[in-house]
């Protein structure tokens, strides 16, 4: 079945461009459009998309609040949110990720990256490009732990291999890339990621990445 996509952007011309790109793919279907966050909420309820391509800065309700309501505890449907931003150091990107977005992408990204990002997010993984994520975390490094703070007790519930996997998730690697890095199967990686999320009480890979940095397990710029 085709991945159902909702386009949310206050610029009609951009929505048209995204629609043309996505409808050229057999496994993607644009089911609707919205020009602001409030319209997006109505469309999500009515159309039940798999992925919402969400602009951040919009009138009436911005993309951060719309994301929070779409992915929050009262969510009505399976929609994942992929945030679009003009600037890779947009301060709202971090807030959108914390609100529940499954990742972010620059508006000027090549068409093939947009298509791949939607497929990745629809599959339940996070779209966290390592280079962009690292620049964002470097910018906010002053708000993150220095590394001298005590390690959270919850981190001790993880096995050594699960800690390794968490570090690689925080670097933005996909399951396939983690599998190659650790010389294990992709299925094994999925199992480890599932255990990490369950043990730490996290919703998804994005929250896992944020946890890894906020706990001091991973430092901005570290390999």
TrEMBL record:
It comes from the Bacteria. GO terms for biological process: phosphorelay signal transduction system; regulation of DNA-templated transcription. Gene3D superfamilies: 3.40.50.2300. GO terms for molecular function: DNA binding. The keyword DNA-binding applies. Keywords: DNA-binding, Phosphoprotein, Transcription, Transcription regulation. Residues 4-122 form the Response regulatory domain. The modification 4-aspartylphosphate is found at residue 55. Residues 151-216 form the HTH luxR-type domain. This is Response regulator. It comes from Streptomyces boluensis.
């Amino acid at each position: 079945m085709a991945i159902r996509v909702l386009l949310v952007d206050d610029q009609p011309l951009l929505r048209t461009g995204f629609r043309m790109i996505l409808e050229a793919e057999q496994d993607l279907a644009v089911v609707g459009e919205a020009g602001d966050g409030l319209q997006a909420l109505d469309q999500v309820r009515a159309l039940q998309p798999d992925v919402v391509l969400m602009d951040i800065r919009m009138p009436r309700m911005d993309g951060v609040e719309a994301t929070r309501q779409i992915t929050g505890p009262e969510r009505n449907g399976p929609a994942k949110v992929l945030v679009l931003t003009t600037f890779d150091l947009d301060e709202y990107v971090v807030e959108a990720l914390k609100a529940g977005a499954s990742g972010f992408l620059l508006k000027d990204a090549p068409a093939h990256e947009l298509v791949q990002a939607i497929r990745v997010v629809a599959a339940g993984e996070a779209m966290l490009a390592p280079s962009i994520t690292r620049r964002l975390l470097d910018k906010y490094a002053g708000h993150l732990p220095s590394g001298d703070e005590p390690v959270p007790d919850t981190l001790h519930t993880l096995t050594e291999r699960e800690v390794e996997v968490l570090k690689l998730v925080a670097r933005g690697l996909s399951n396939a890339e983690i599998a190659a890095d650790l010389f294990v199967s992709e299925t094994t990686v999925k199992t480890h990621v599932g255990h990490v999320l369950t043990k730490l009480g996290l919703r998804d890979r994005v929250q896992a990445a944020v946890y890894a940095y906020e706990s001091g397990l991973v430092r901005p710029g570290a390999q």
